[in-house]
């Protein structure tokens, strides 16, 4: 079985009596340590697919397994625990807490684990060092550039040592230089730390960083 195994997945949203199909009998296999870029027009279902892989949403039909776990068999607290241990999410708009320092933002996911405050701090400092921001750990988001905020967000996604990183337009809100630095970081995480990465992007330049490019259009995949 592939590390990320999506089989015959349909996703239909319902609005009153209207059915809105988003994904149609979609299958995708991603191996451990692979870096896959997912491209397609707006509204093609890219973020929906990412949310299904991350267990944030459930498919209407079909099966999704990640790192050997059939997500459909999990619910409630078990699903939340699985997600915190398995998935690291990187968003386009960073989603940092403005009242927390960079270090405190990175520590946040670790509050879900039984762990001492000193261990949390140690792990968060390591993650910030990994993304090149050890010297910014006491800074608040408003004191950082957009590229630095995104690197803090990547450190937060990494701090629990997830099996899969899901990146939704990680460079979409950045200038070319900052976006390039974020892509270099993702490539390094994939190459040196063997992180499996699925990245949604609209930027062909960003997609070149991946091992494989997959196109999604009207809920249907093509390589």
Account of the protein in words:
- The chain is α/β, with parallel strands linked by helices and 223 residues long.
- It has one domain (32-58, 77-222): P-loop containing nucleotide triphosphate hydrolases (Rossmann fold, 3-Layer(aba) Sandwich), CATH 3.40.50.
- 33% of the residues lie in helices and 27% in strands.
- The strands form two sheets. Strands 6-7-8-3-9-10 form a six-stranded mixed beta sheet.
- A hairpin with a 2-residue loop joins β4 and β5.
- α4 crosses α5 and α5 packs parallel to α6.
- The two termini are 20 Å apart.
Question: Could you give a quick summary of the protein structure above?
Answer:
The chain has 223 residues and is α/β, with parallel strands linked by helices. 33% of the residues lie in helices and 27% in strands. The protein has helices at 46-53, 76-86, 102-107, 117-130, 146-158, 176-193, 204-207; strands at residues 4-15, 18-30, 35-39, 61-66, 69-70, 87-90, 164-168, 196-200, 212-217, 220-222.
Strand content: 25-35%
- How would the global form be characterised? globular
Number of domains: 1
- CATH homologous group name: P-loop containing nucleotide triphosphate hydrolases
- Care to count the β-strands? 10
CATH class: Alpha Beta
Helical coverage, percent range: 25-40%
Class from secondary-structure proportions:
alpha/beta
Strand order of the largest sheet: 6-7-8-3-9-10
What's the average pLDDT? Answer: 94
Uncertain stretches: none
What's the tally of helices? 7
CATH architecture: 3-Layer(aba) Sandwich
CATH topology: Rossmann fold
Largest sheet: 6 strands, mixed
The ordered string of helix (H) and strand (E) elements is EEEHEEHEHHHEHEHEE
Q: How much is the radius of gyration in Å?
A: 17 Å
Separation of termini? 20 Å
